[in-house]
UniProtKB/TrEMBL annotation:
Belongs to the chloroperoxidase family. Its cofactor is heme b. This is Heme haloperoxidase family profile domain-containing protein. Keywords: Heme, Iron, Metal-binding, Oxidoreductase, Peroxidase, Signal. Residues 1-17 form the signal peptide.
Length: 268
Protein backbone atom coordinates (compact mmCIF):
# COMPACT_ATOMS: atom_id res chain seq x y z
CA UNK A 1 0.00 0.00 0.00
CA UNK A 2 1.37 3.40 -0.97
CA UNK A 3 1.53 6.32 1.43
CA UNK A 4 -1.31 8.71 0.56
CA UNK A 5 -1.03 12.47 0.35
CA UNK A 6 -3.55 12.77 3.17
CA UNK A 7 -1.11 11.19 5.56
CA UNK A 8 -0.35 13.43 8.50
CA UNK A 9 3.25 12.83 9.46
CA UNK A 10 3.78 11.98 13.09
CA UNK A 11 6.23 14.45 14.54
CA UNK A 12 7.84 14.50 17.95
CA UNK A 13 10.98 15.69 19.66
CA UNK A 14 14.12 13.75 18.80
CA UNK A 15 14.11 12.09 22.18
CA UNK A 16 11.11 10.10 21.02
CA UNK A 17 11.34 10.25 17.23
CA UNK A 18 13.21 11.41 14.17
CA UNK A 19 11.98 12.99 10.99
CA UNK A 20 12.81 13.10 7.32
CA UNK A 21 11.20 16.47 6.79
CA UNK A 22 14.36 18.44 6.31
CA UNK A 23 13.30 21.59 4.69
CA UNK A 24 16.70 23.09 4.17
CA UNK A 25 17.86 24.72 0.98
CA UNK A 26 19.89 27.59 -0.30
CA UNK A 27 21.52 29.83 -2.82
CA UNK A 28 24.47 32.11 -2.29
CA UNK A 29 26.64 30.95 -5.14
CA UNK A 30 25.87 30.37 -8.84
CA UNK A 31 23.89 27.22 -9.50
CA UNK A 32 25.86 24.41 -11.06
CA UNK A 33 22.88 22.50 -12.44
CA UNK A 34 23.22 20.60 -15.66
CA UNK A 35 20.40 18.85 -17.45
CA UNK A 36 20.02 15.35 -18.76
CA UNK A 37 17.34 13.77 -20.87
CA UNK A 38 17.97 10.36 -19.37
CA UNK A 39 18.54 8.81 -15.98
CA UNK A 40 20.57 5.99 -17.44
CA UNK A 41 24.26 5.57 -16.70
CA UNK A 42 26.61 3.12 -18.32
CA UNK A 43 28.48 0.45 -16.39
CA UNK A 44 31.65 2.52 -16.71
CA UNK A 45 30.02 5.55 -15.13
CA UNK A 46 29.47 6.29 -11.48
CA UNK A 47 25.99 4.95 -10.66
CA UNK A 48 25.63 7.79 -8.18
CA UNK A 49 26.63 10.60 -10.51
CA UNK A 50 24.44 13.65 -10.09
CA UNK A 51 21.72 14.02 -12.73
CA UNK A 52 19.18 16.84 -12.62
CA UNK A 53 15.55 15.86 -12.23
CA UNK A 54 13.39 15.80 -15.33
CA UNK A 55 9.94 17.47 -15.39
CA UNK A 56 8.34 14.05 -15.03
CA UNK A 57 10.24 13.19 -11.85
CA UNK A 58 8.75 13.53 -8.38
CA UNK A 59 10.55 15.87 -6.01
CA UNK A 60 9.78 17.18 -2.52
CA UNK A 61 10.37 20.23 -0.31
CA UNK A 62 13.19 18.28 1.36
CA UNK A 63 16.62 18.97 -0.17
CA UNK A 64 18.13 15.78 1.22
CA UNK A 65 15.46 13.56 -0.25
CA UNK A 66 15.85 15.32 -3.59
CA UNK A 67 19.62 14.94 -3.34
CA UNK A 68 19.30 11.20 -2.80
CA UNK A 69 17.16 10.93 -5.92
CA UNK A 70 19.43 13.16 -8.02
CA UNK A 71 22.37 10.91 -7.15
CA UNK A 72 20.48 7.64 -7.57
CA UNK A 73 20.69 6.61 -3.92
CA UNK A 74 16.92 6.19 -4.12
CA UNK A 75 14.92 5.84 -7.35
CA UNK A 76 15.92 8.72 -9.59
CA UNK A 77 12.31 9.39 -10.52
CA UNK A 78 11.50 9.92 -6.83
CA UNK A 79 8.80 7.25 -6.78
CA UNK A 80 8.12 3.99 -4.98
CA UNK A 81 10.58 4.66 -2.17
CA UNK A 82 10.73 1.73 0.23
CA UNK A 83 12.04 1.42 3.76
CA UNK A 84 15.02 -0.60 2.58
CA UNK A 85 15.75 1.75 -0.30
CA UNK A 86 15.70 4.90 1.81
CA UNK A 87 17.75 3.38 4.60
CA UNK A 88 20.39 2.10 2.19
CA UNK A 89 20.53 5.47 0.47
CA UNK A 90 21.14 7.37 3.70
CA UNK A 91 23.80 4.89 4.80
CA UNK A 92 25.67 5.01 1.49
CA UNK A 93 25.40 8.73 0.81
CA UNK A 94 26.05 10.44 4.16
CA UNK A 95 26.90 7.49 6.42
CA UNK A 96 23.90 7.50 8.72
CA UNK A 97 23.92 4.44 10.95
CA UNK A 98 21.57 1.70 9.70
CA UNK A 99 19.37 2.14 12.76
CA UNK A 100 19.06 5.89 12.31
CA UNK A 101 18.48 5.55 8.57
CA UNK A 102 15.73 2.96 9.00
CA UNK A 103 13.96 5.04 11.63
CA UNK A 104 13.49 7.86 9.15
CA UNK A 105 11.20 5.75 6.98
CA UNK A 106 9.32 4.37 9.97
CA UNK A 107 8.58 7.88 11.15
CA UNK A 108 7.21 9.10 7.87
CA UNK A 109 4.84 6.13 7.79
CA UNK A 110 3.97 6.12 11.47
CA UNK A 111 0.37 7.20 10.81
CA UNK A 112 -0.03 4.53 8.13
CA UNK A 113 2.08 1.55 9.19
CA UNK A 114 0.63 -0.65 6.45
CA UNK A 115 2.16 1.56 3.74
CA UNK A 116 5.26 0.11 2.13
CA UNK A 117 6.39 2.93 -0.17
CA UNK A 118 5.82 6.56 -1.07
CA UNK A 119 6.61 9.14 -3.76
CA UNK A 120 8.57 12.31 -3.02
CA UNK A 121 5.83 14.64 -4.26
CA UNK A 122 3.50 13.25 -1.60
CA UNK A 123 5.52 15.32 0.85
CA UNK A 124 4.43 18.53 -0.90
CA UNK A 125 1.04 18.59 0.83
CA UNK A 126 0.92 21.62 3.14
CA UNK A 127 1.58 20.75 6.78
CA UNK A 128 2.37 17.17 5.86
CA UNK A 129 5.95 17.03 4.61
CA UNK A 130 6.04 20.79 4.04
CA UNK A 131 5.46 23.67 6.45
CA UNK A 132 5.55 27.45 6.67
CA UNK A 133 8.78 29.35 7.41
CA UNK A 134 11.07 27.09 5.38
CA UNK A 135 14.67 28.17 5.01
CA UNK A 136 14.46 27.74 1.25
CA UNK A 137 10.87 27.49 0.07
CA UNK A 138 7.89 29.83 -0.17
CA UNK A 139 5.01 29.36 2.22
CA UNK A 140 2.14 27.59 0.46
CA UNK A 141 0.07 30.77 0.72
CA UNK A 142 2.47 32.57 -1.63
CA UNK A 143 2.76 29.88 -4.30
CA UNK A 144 5.12 27.01 -5.03
CA UNK A 145 5.96 25.54 -1.64
CA UNK A 146 8.27 22.75 -2.77
CA UNK A 147 10.76 24.17 -5.28
CA UNK A 148 13.94 25.89 -4.17
CA UNK A 149 13.47 29.68 -3.97
CA UNK A 150 16.62 31.85 -4.29
CA UNK A 151 14.99 34.91 -2.71
CA UNK A 152 13.94 33.01 0.39
CA UNK A 153 17.35 31.47 0.74
CA UNK A 154 19.09 34.82 0.34
CA UNK A 155 17.09 35.99 3.34
CA UNK A 156 18.19 32.90 5.23
CA UNK A 157 21.89 33.23 4.46
CA UNK A 158 21.94 36.88 5.49
CA UNK A 159 21.94 35.57 9.06
CA UNK A 160 25.00 33.41 8.46
CA UNK A 161 27.51 36.07 9.41
CA UNK A 162 30.77 34.12 9.30
CA UNK A 163 32.37 30.91 8.11
CA UNK A 164 31.95 28.20 9.28
CA UNK A 165 28.23 28.45 9.88
CA UNK A 166 27.38 27.71 13.51
CA UNK A 167 24.33 26.19 15.14
CA UNK A 168 23.50 29.66 16.46
CA UNK A 169 23.52 31.13 12.95
CA UNK A 170 21.28 28.36 11.65
CA UNK A 171 18.92 28.97 14.57
CA UNK A 172 18.94 32.72 13.94
CA UNK A 173 17.96 32.22 10.31
CA UNK A 174 15.14 29.89 11.32
CA UNK A 175 13.73 32.35 13.84
CA UNK A 176 13.95 35.14 11.26
CA UNK A 177 12.03 33.08 8.72
CA UNK A 178 9.33 32.35 11.29
CA UNK A 179 8.95 36.03 12.18
CA UNK A 180 8.80 37.03 8.51
CA UNK A 181 6.23 34.36 7.73
CA UNK A 182 4.08 35.21 10.71
CA UNK A 183 4.13 38.91 9.79
CA UNK A 184 3.23 38.56 6.11
CA UNK A 185 1.39 35.25 5.70
CA UNK A 186 -2.23 35.57 6.90
CA UNK A 187 -2.56 31.78 6.96
CA UNK A 188 0.69 31.18 8.86
CA UNK A 189 0.60 27.98 10.89
CA UNK A 190 3.39 26.48 12.95
CA UNK A 191 2.12 23.92 15.48
CA UNK A 192 4.20 22.59 18.35
CA UNK A 193 4.91 19.37 16.47
CA UNK A 194 6.44 21.34 13.60
CA UNK A 195 8.57 23.37 15.98
CA UNK A 196 9.92 20.22 17.58
CA UNK A 197 10.99 18.61 14.33
CA UNK A 198 12.26 21.88 12.85
CA UNK A 199 15.12 21.90 15.34
CA UNK A 200 16.37 18.67 13.77
CA UNK A 201 15.93 19.83 10.20
CA UNK A 202 17.59 23.18 10.92
CA UNK A 203 20.65 21.39 12.27
CA UNK A 204 20.75 18.85 9.47
CA UNK A 205 23.63 20.49 7.54
CA UNK A 206 25.82 19.98 10.60
CA UNK A 207 24.82 16.32 10.80
CA UNK A 208 25.36 15.61 7.13
CA UNK A 209 28.33 17.80 6.24
CA UNK A 210 29.77 19.43 9.33
CA UNK A 211 31.57 19.11 12.65
CA UNK A 212 29.01 17.54 14.95
CA UNK A 213 31.01 17.96 18.13
CA UNK A 214 31.53 21.69 17.62
CA UNK A 215 28.23 22.35 15.89
CA UNK A 216 29.63 23.97 12.75
CA UNK A 217 29.61 23.40 9.00
CA UNK A 218 31.54 24.92 6.11
CA UNK A 219 29.43 27.57 4.44
CA UNK A 220 30.50 26.52 0.95
CA UNK A 221 29.29 22.96 1.53
CA UNK A 222 25.91 24.06 2.86
CA UNK A 223 25.26 26.58 0.12
CA UNK A 224 26.38 24.22 -2.64
CA UNK A 225 24.12 21.47 -1.34
CA UNK A 226 21.11 23.73 -0.89
CA UNK A 227 21.45 25.43 -4.26
CA UNK A 228 22.02 22.26 -6.26
CA UNK A 229 20.45 19.49 -4.21
CA UNK A 230 23.72 17.75 -4.78
CA UNK A 231 26.31 16.30 -2.40
CA UNK A 232 29.00 18.99 -1.95
CA UNK A 233 32.04 16.91 -2.87
CA UNK A 234 32.92 19.51 -5.52
CA UNK A 235 33.70 22.00 -2.73
CA UNK A 236 35.77 19.64 -0.59
CA UNK A 237 33.22 17.68 1.43
CA UNK A 238 33.95 14.02 2.11
CA UNK A 239 31.73 11.40 3.70
CA UNK A 240 32.56 11.14 7.39
CA UNK A 241 34.44 8.06 8.59
CA UNK A 242 32.13 7.14 11.47
CA UNK A 243 28.36 6.65 11.09
CA UNK A 244 26.03 9.36 12.37
CA UNK A 245 24.05 8.03 15.32
CA UNK A 246 20.71 8.89 16.86
CA UNK A 247 22.56 10.23 19.89
CA UNK A 248 24.49 12.66 17.70
CA UNK A 249 21.31 13.78 16.00
CA UNK A 250 19.84 14.39 19.42
CA UNK A 251 22.85 16.47 20.42
CA UNK A 252 22.62 18.68 17.33
CA UNK A 253 18.87 19.03 17.77
CA UNK A 254 19.47 20.27 21.31
CA UNK A 255 22.03 22.79 20.03
CA UNK A 256 19.37 24.33 17.81
CA UNK A 257 16.65 24.17 20.47
CA UNK A 258 18.92 25.96 22.93
CA UNK A 259 19.83 28.61 20.36
CA UNK A 260 16.41 29.69 19.07
CA UNK A 261 15.33 31.53 22.21
CA UNK A 262 15.44 35.33 22.26
CA UNK A 263 15.76 35.66 26.03
CA UNK A 264 19.32 35.97 27.32
CA UNK A 265 20.80 34.79 30.59
CA UNK A 266 20.13 31.71 32.63
CA UNK A 267 16.61 30.55 33.38
CA UNK A 268 15.51 31.10 36.94
Amino acid sequence: MKLTTSLVLATASLTSALTIDLNLAGLARPLLHTTSASHSTSKTQNPHAWIAASPADARSPCPMMNTLANHGYIHRDGRNITREGLAEGLVQSINFSPELAASMFDLILSMDPSATDFDLDMLNAHNVGEHDASLSRLDAYFGNNHAFNPTIFAQTTSYWTSDPVTAQMLANSKVARQIHSKAFNPTYTYPASTEQTSHTETGFPILAFGDIQNGTVARAAVEYWFANERLPSEVGWKVRQEPVTAEQMGAVTKMIADAVGLVTGKKE
